[in-house]
Amino acid sequence: MMRRNRFKHVLATLVFGFAMLSQLAFAQDASKATPSADSKIRNIDGVAAVVNTGYVTRKEIDDRILALQKQGGKLPDPATLRKTVLERLIIEKIQLQNAEQEGVTVTNKELDKIIADIADKNKLTLAELKVKIAATGSSYERYRQMLRDDVILSRYREREVEGKIKISDAEIDNFIIERNRAVAGGGVSRSAPAANGEPEEIDVAQIFIPADASAGAGAQAQAKKKAEVLLREARGDVDFLQLGAMAAKDNPKIKFQELGYRTPDRLPQLFYEAIRNTGSGQVANAVVKSPAGYHVLKVLDRRALTVAAPPAQQAAPQDETSSVPKNIKVTQTLSRHILLRSRAGLSDQDAERRLAGYRDQVRAKTADFGDLAKKYSEDGSAANGGNLGWMGPGDLVPEFDQAMNRLQIGEVSNPVKTEFGWHLIQVLERREAELTVEKQRQFARAAIRERKFEQAYQDWLREIRDTATVKIINADDPASSPR
């Protein structure tokens, strides 16, 4: 379940499918969602924005805000929240329109299978799921349409963004070489810098503190203050990525990543301007502000674009062995977990409290971890007592991987939050295994893709938004208010 790429989309769809129940109470019936052109004109006061040939209504904004309020959590001030929700609905509308033009569809058979999986994952029969849907005051057909739209969006996004991510064999080779050197020598071997005026590649890492451009002044100031604190700490004798991991542990919205070697033209312009004169191992002079939030940057390395050792060095045995791909030894971990998925009606505090209770029972030996997983875990591994099988470095999402690696055999973690929800983890066993060259290449490709995906996704969103025809009419008033 916790593998980075293989199961992320499937699980996200299942989580959305069940969490959607919290929104159905506020959703319009499907038959009301597609009025005629005449109806659009007569009810123009109800339209918040015209999007290409479609539109977003004030009622849709109201429904989405009510759903967010039901989910709990801190929300921005009403005016900012309304603008943010409208923008999200506009982006979704554009994507659905584009997906329809591109022929992205979901058949009824596929949809039936997805709904059956959702019911099964939540230990419900189809009839029981329909009862839950009816209890929200909406219809099963409306639920199907909402789920169909979400799956179409997911497929369209995946197809479009994946097509923009290019990974060369050279990037994979470099990744494997650097990783193997780090494993063998305890650190990454740095290259000689480029001479003045020569092409170069820069390895940059970032800690990202999100703060949407539409967020209120208070939220912006808070995010900036946090970024400046991290910048000061990064200037000390600390591991930059470990600093990012600690910050993300305190606030899961904070992200950290190593971007890998990139030529200046492949770095975001804001980033390159900030680190243009920053040497290897140095932190940027100031926090970088982007429309998405605040970035703390560190240059891990700068090297000549063409990395070629002199002939004498190439002949040296130690250089040959360090640059030729080979099987390597890695530590694999056998673990199990209990997952409480993020959903409406379950706050972070409640999930953490429940898992802490399970942890205390296991530690006191009044309950077996596997039995608790079978009974309470909201994951496909529950039937096997939460067993995830043997996992190697990079197989799991970072938050889970880091927490698992800190545990001794038999030890149970404190509650851990990831993008999938809250976890309780127990390590069962560890072993040394051999990672083949082919497996290394698969891992390298996945890791490089992870680095590139978020930037490609944000670039794609800006591209489709900029090319759409959008006219905001009246988004400030709720649907029940007169213009």
Key descriptive features of the protein:
4-stranded antiparallel beta sheet; Triger factor/SurA peptide-binding fold; Chitinase A, domain 3; 11 strands; 3 domains; 483 residues
Outline the structure in words.
A four-stranded antiparallel beta sheet has the order 4-3-6-5. It is α+β, with helices and mostly antiparallel strands. The chain is built from 18 helices and eleven strands. It has helices at 8-19, 21-24, 37-42, 58-71, 78-101, 108-121, 126-135, 140-164, 169-185, 217-234, 240-250, 269-275, 311-315, 317-323, 348-363, 369-376, 398-405, 437-467; strands at 47-51, 54-57, 200-210, 255-262, 288-290, 293-304, 328-341, 387-391, 416-418, 421-435, 470-472. It folds into three domains: 8-164 and 462-472, Porin chaperone SurA, peptide-binding domain (Triger factor/SurA peptide-binding fold, Orthogonal Bundle), CATH 1.10.4030.10; 169-326 and 443-453, Chitinase A, domain 3, CATH 3.10.50.40; 328-435, Chitinase A, domain 3 (Roll). Helix 1 crosses helix 6 (108-121).
Task: Summarize the helices and strands and which ones pair or pack.
Blueprint (H helix, E strand, L loop, with lengths): L7 H12 L1 H4 L12 H6 L4 E5 L2 E4 H14 L6 H24 L6 H14 L4 H10 L4 H25 L4 H17 L14 E11 L6 H18 L5 H11 L4 E8 L6 H7 L12 E3 L2 E12 L6 H5 L1 H7 L4 E14 L6 H16 L5 H8 L10 E5 L6 H8 L10 E3 L2 E15 L1 H31 L2 E3 L11
Antiparallel strand pairs: 1-2, 1-11, 3-4, 3-6, 5-6, 7-8, 7-10, 9-10
